[in-house]
Amino acid sequence: MSSGRERQRAIYIGGLSGQKPAVPVAPDRLREAARQRMPEQAFAYVAGGAGQETTIDANRQALERWRIVPRMLRDVSQRDTSVELFGHRLAAPFLLAPIGVLDMAHRQADRAVARAAAAEDIPMIFSSQASVPMEETAAQMGGSPRWFQLYWSTADDVVLSFVQRAEACGCSAIVLTLDTTLLGWRIRDLDLSYLPFLRGRGIAQYTSDPAFMAHLEQNLADSETTGARRNLNTVAAFVEMATHYPDSLLNGMRSGKALRAVQQFIATYSRPSLTWDDLAFLRENTALPILLKGILHPDDARQAVDHGMDGVIVSNHGGRQVDGAIGTLDALPDVVEAVDGRVPVLMDSGIRGGADVFKALALGASAVLLGRPFVYGLALAGEAGVRGVIANLKADFDLTMGLAGCTTPAEIGPDNVRCITQ
Asked: How many degrees, rounded to 5, is the angle at CA 177 between CA 107 and CA 149?
């Protein structure tokens, strides 16, 4: 059960003694507060999108085109925001999206997010590009639900090792991200000439993985990092690499393993040659539900089901990969129709408030993924900041659902929204 009224009341009563929420409630103010707190490179990496960032705009524009049509004189005094997904009852119809390099926002990184998710009974999807190994993150969560997001690397033994580790640390689903076989043209990062992975950040899943580390003992091909001009900036970058390598700073520098780990990551990270036929390898090697993330075309959704996948996530990676792509809420109805109830459909990209969650559910999503806002909360107040963002979204959705005349997510349907053409 969830009560938005309780969250409201707590905030207003706190105001009587001068207390304010740990993080701003308004999404725009939350983002701006985080921008002022985070280093320039960190904020650019989190907030930025591909090209002119029109896909980020498209996500919000799509959500704005659909409007809620509230119904009156319905008893909404008792509400239940929970949903069932893959046999688990979730407190609310959303999960925390997989976001990498969380140490750029806060030194506790994935640990703080995991504790917040567990405390708020919201599943966290561990990122392949995490700052903390999945086992350490899982240890923060007790028995709370968690999934694992997989990037398919060029080494199948690393893919298999990641999946086996995810199973061992209690992940209950695998989210295979399809839209990042190449890195998008991210102009904010390019203008700053900054990519965190080249500095050893966001590769903790790899440097803690036995299959990946075995490759370090093999001969490594030269990578782009070896072409960097040697100066004080280069030395600082090498120190940063060693700082994030799982060994002492001195040993990481002396042995050269920190640099070699970065080089091996660059050679391993993603596989542009991935095709539908490769999914059989993953399906044969795990009994966990597999969801394909990055689906925008209905034919791809049909292919996913035909290839034995257990769910799809309508996503454009928060606008980070393809500039000018379709907004996810615009893509959702066709994907839902193509799947025809055979597997759950989730959605991400652009979710900022309870109304957004409501609209996605009305158009057929089983749940949504929340991304950037929880990172902004992390940057502002660590675990408490993430909890604040989650609690606000839960409360906002609960009140929106009730005010629209619904008492459970199951009651939300196409009749509750209208598309307003512009």
From this structure: 45
- What type of residue is 138? A
| Residue 269 confidence (pLDDT) | 86
Question: How distant, in Å, are the alpha carbons of 16, 29, 397 from that of 21?
Answer: 12, 12, 18
Residues 183-215 have pLDDT tens digits of 999 999 999 999 999 888 999 999 999 999 888
- Of residues 226 and 268, more confidence is placed in 268
317 counts as catalytic: yes
Within 8 A by CB and 6+ apart from 1, the residues are: 79, 80, 81, 82
Q: pTM of the full predicted structure?
A: 0.93
One CATH from 3.40.120.10, 3.90.180.10, 3.20.20.120, 3.20.20.70 for 4-182+271-419? 3.20.20.70
The pLDDT of residue 265: 86
Point out which residues pair with 89 in neighbouring strands.
84
Where does CATH 3.20.20.70 sit in the chain? 4-182+271-419
Helix (H, G, I), strand (E, B) or coil at 226: helix
Q: How far apart are CA 38 and CA 284, in angstroms?
A: 42
Q: For residues 126 and 148, is the Cβ–Cβ distance under 8 A?
A: yes
Give the tens place of pLDDT for each residue, 4-29: 999 999 999 999 999 999 899 999 99
Number of DSSP helices (H) and strands (E) in the chain, helices first: 18, 12
